[in-house]
């Protein structure tokens, strides 16, 4: 059986990405045909550490395996970097590594992309004013719409807005935009999960879902958005957006996370707006398959409390599979070999399984 082709981007070479990669490379190489894109200098910063490695031409060898390496910024050397400190050089290396990896997958030379964390501040210092991976990858792919999702065995969440101020979220709350997120999230997540009829819960904005208007009236906007989302899904509004998966249902027995019972019917069940202080626990206990949160921290706090090691960042709307660990560069501990690779392994595992399905396997 041909192994899935996975492209891993190193992320910021001054963060924990290089050490996570070195510690896990033999395990990943046994399950996938790997290529790494990023600054070789980031690995060279770790020379003499507890994981020995060597360069064999354009391949990295460690732990009995050897994988191809693409370095789009060969002019950046260890002298240009400071372990644990992001800057213009590391930001340039990180962004160009993502570009190289994404274009490789888009060009048909990979089945999925796994991105190690980059620093937005370092990317900005390098002249790339990007909000994050999701928006950058959307631009490279020319995708009409993307959304940031988080998947784990117990809790799956899609964010309506991501890296913006809370004030702007409230001031910009829009019925049509929320309906778009709801219907798109239900459509795309059903594809990733391999089953239709997902139970989708929408978070309220105000405490107690507004308490009948006592704490705000934004929930009326959300109720109308739910009605519009139901209509959009019934019309198949997102059939034109590229998908990494072939037409038709997932292979028999396939599940994004085994153990959750499959549901019948092709139309999602939308409900809400639900008070945000209870809806995530209800979903974690199995009442909902997916929660749509209105802003970054509303969705990410419960994800990181309830599923800190297993939650994986998953991009909806790209023509290929892209996953990422749900953590940052952790500059403060970079080079100390204290970073836990568990979440990165979860991200890689999900990418491998989804890539196999995208190629028509189970």
Automatic annotation (TrEMBL):
Keywords: Metal-binding, NAD, Oxidoreductase. The keyword Oxidoreductase applies. It comes from the Bacteria. InterPro entries: PdxA_fam. Coiled coil: none annotated. GO terms for molecular function: metal ion binding; NAD binding; oxidoreductase activity. Gene3D superfamilies: Isopropylmalate Dehydrogenase. Pfam families: PdxA. This is 4-hydroxythreonine-4-phosphate dehydrogenase. It comes from Mesoterricola silvestris. The gene is pdxA.
């Amino acid at each position: 059986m041909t192994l899935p082709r996975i492209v891993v981007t190193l992320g910021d070479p001054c963060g924990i990405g290089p050490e996570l990669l070195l510690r896990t490379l033999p395990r990943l190489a046994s399950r996938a045909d790997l290529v790494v894109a990023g600054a070789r200098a980031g690995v060279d910063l770790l020379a003499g550490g507890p994981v020995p490695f060597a360069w064999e031409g354009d391949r990295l060898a460690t732990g009995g395996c050897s994988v191809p390496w693409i370095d789009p910024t060969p002019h950046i050397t260890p002298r240009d970097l400071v372990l644990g400190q992001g800057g213009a050089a590391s930001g340039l290396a990180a962004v160009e590594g993502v570009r190289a990896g994404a274009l490789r997958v888009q060009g048909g030379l990979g089945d999925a992309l796994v991105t190690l964390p980059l620093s937005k501040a370092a990317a900005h210092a390098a002249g790339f004013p990007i909000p994050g991976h999701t928006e950058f990858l959307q631009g490279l792919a020319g995708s009409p719409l993307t959304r940031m999702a988080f998947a784990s065995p117990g809790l799956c969440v899609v964010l309506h807005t991501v890296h913006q101020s809370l004030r702007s979220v409230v001031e910009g709350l829009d019925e049509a935009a929320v309906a778009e997120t709801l219907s798109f999230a239900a459509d795309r997540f059903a594809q990733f999960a391999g089953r239709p009829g997902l139970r989708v819960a929408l978070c309220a904005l105000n405490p107690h879902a507004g308490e009948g208007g006592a704490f705000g009236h934004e929930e009326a906007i959300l109720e109308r958005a739910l009605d519009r989302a139901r209509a959009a899904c019934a019309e198949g509004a997102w059939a034109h957006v590229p998908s990494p998966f072939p037409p038709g249902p997932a292979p028999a027995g396939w599940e994004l996370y085994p153990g959750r019972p499959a549901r019948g019917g092709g139309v999602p069940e939308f409900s809400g707006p639900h008070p945000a202080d209870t809806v995530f626990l209800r979903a974690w206990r199995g009442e909902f398959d997916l929660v749509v949160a209105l802003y970054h921290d509303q969705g990410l706090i419960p994800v990181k409390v309830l599923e800190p090691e297993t939650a994986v960042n998953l991009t909806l709307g790209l023509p290929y599979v892209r996953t990422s660990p749900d953590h940052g560069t952790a500059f403060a501990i970079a080079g100390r070999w204290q970073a836990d690779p568990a979440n990165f392994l979860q991200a890689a595992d999900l990418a491998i399984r989804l890539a196999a399905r995208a190629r028509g396997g189970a």
